[in-house]
Amino acid sequence: MQNVSKRTILWIVPILIIGIFWYFYGPKEEITDNEYITYIKESTLDDSSIKVGEAFSNSCEEEKWVYFQTQRNQHVVEFMGNCPSEKTLKKVNLQFIVNDHQDGFEVNVLLLDNVQQSQEQRDVFIRDLVSL
User: Fold this and answer.
1) Per-residue pLDDT tens for 86-127?
2) What are the backbone dihedrals phi and psi of residue 43, each rounded to the nearest 5 degrees, phi first?
3) Is 6 inside a domain boundary?
4) DSSP the chain
5) Residue 127: which domain range?
6) How many Å apart are CA 82 and CA 88, to the nearest integer?
7) pLDDT of res. 31
8) What is the largest CA-CA distance in the chain?
9) Positive/negative CA dihedral, 16, 18, 77, 107
10) In a domain, 1, yes or no
11) How many distinct structural domains can be found in the chain?
12) Is residue 74 in a domain?
């Protein structure tokens, strides 16, 4: 009888550990509407009068805005959609890192068709998007 209880414990403990890790580090539901997304959409880029949200909605298709917080507690807003680049529509992922008090942001990573672009390529893409 004592062997059965030891075996049972040896199965339950790992399952509990896996369950705890899944709860804390497993996939989370996407946040598609919050104050950080609104802040980015209402902000302007490159001393332009056009708002970020307008620029993307005027030029891109199937747009989606997602908010998440990194392990380092950075507030990230990511735009996903299909936007024109080099006269073709490309899958775009562009991340913005928002300051804690929503008093500024930094344009971060740009992926075009899942390929990371350099800072110069990112800046050209944004300039072209805002000027459309």
Assistant:
1) 888 999 999 999 998 888 999 999 999 999 999 999 999 988
2) -80, 165
3) no
4) -HHHHHHHHHHHHHHHHHHHHHHHHS----B-SSHHHHHHHHSBSTT-SSBHHHHHHHH-EEEEEEEEE-TT--EEEEEEEEEEETTEEEEEEEEEEEPTTSS-EEEEEEEETTEEPPHHHHHHHHHHHHH-
5) 35-131
6) 9
7) 82
8) 77
9) positive
10) no
11) 1
12) yes
- CA dist 86 and 36 (Å) reads 30
Cβ atoms within 10 Å of 74's Cβ, excluding its own: 15
Angle at 55 (CA atoms; ends 120, 62), nearest 5 degrees:
100
Alpha-carbon gap, residue 97 to 99, rounded angstroms: 7
Q: Whole-structure pTM over 0.90, yes or no?
A: no
Indicate whether 119 belongs to any domain.
yes
